[in-house]
Design goal:
Elements: H1 4-17, H2 22-31, H3 36-44, E1 46-47, E2 55-56, H4 64-95, H5 106-139, H6 147-177, H7 182-209
Antiparallel strand pairs: 1-2
Helix pairs in contact: 1-3, 2-3, 4-5, 4-6, 4-7, 6-7
């Protein structure tokens, strides 16, 4: 049994082969309820050439280059997010020391210096790679269907969800125990903001890909 995507492409190929125009095919599929993005993607799978039969365009396939690109992109996201949280935690500890926890320890300054260095290095790499990927996807929307891209996106959503659930659970636990402090609330907000930004961004990205 054919999948929806292969059935749609087969219909487009047969319709083009029988001499129907792209506008006619688009109108028929729209009337049948197909999403416009999916219709245009299927039409774009065939070259608009004066040839007796529809000529398919080459489809993107998983390559070592693509896998490398997305692995580096998401690795910088994870590594940068963790160290951004560590940097903000260190600043909170330094600004609001606990009564039994001195504000300054040499190793804590080393930890702050390291986490800040990681953020300085990974943030530009992540932004540049994200920009490059966005340009490539804009030129060829079918790249959103990349298996490695979708797997890593779902992994990111899972990790962000776990972080948010753990963050809220810990907050409720501290509230019930009566141990809530400004320092703890600020750390909770740091985790919530970082995880929420990652979750919302990649959820929207995934929804855009579902239209293909």
């Amino acid at each position: 049994m054919k999948s929806a995507g292969s059935a749609l492409e087969h219909f487009v190929a047969v319709s083009l082969d029988r001499g129907h125009s792209r506008a006619e095919i688009e109108a028929a599929l729209t009337a049948a309820g197909w999403p416009m993005a999916q219709i245009r993607s299927s039409l774009a799978a065939y070259a608009d050439l004066p040839f007796p039969v529809p000529v398919p365009k080459p489809k993107p396939s998983l390559s070592s280059r693509e896998a490398f690109l997305y692995l580096v992109l998401f690795s910088t996201l994870y590594f940068g997010a963790l160290n951004l949280g560590s940097t903000l935690f260190s600043l909170i500890n330094w600004s609001l020391p606990a009564p039994l926890d001195p504000a300054y320890y040499p190793w804590r300054w080393d930890e702050l210096r390291w986490s800040t260095s990681v953020v300085i290095v990974t943030l530009p790499v992540f932004l540049l790679l994200s920009r490059y990927v966005a340009i490539q996807v804009a030129r060829n929307p079918s790249l959103r269907l990349s298996p490695v891209r979708r797997w890593l996106t779902y992994l990111t959503l899972f990790l962000a969800s776990v972080a948010l659930l753990g963050d809220v659970t810990t907050l409720v636990y501290e509230v019930l125990g009566g141990d809530l402090t400004i320092r703890f609330v600020l750390k909770t907000l740091v985790v919530a903001v970082i995880a929420s930004m990652a979750f919302s961004h990649y959820l929207q990205d995934l929804r855009r890909g579902e239209d293909l």
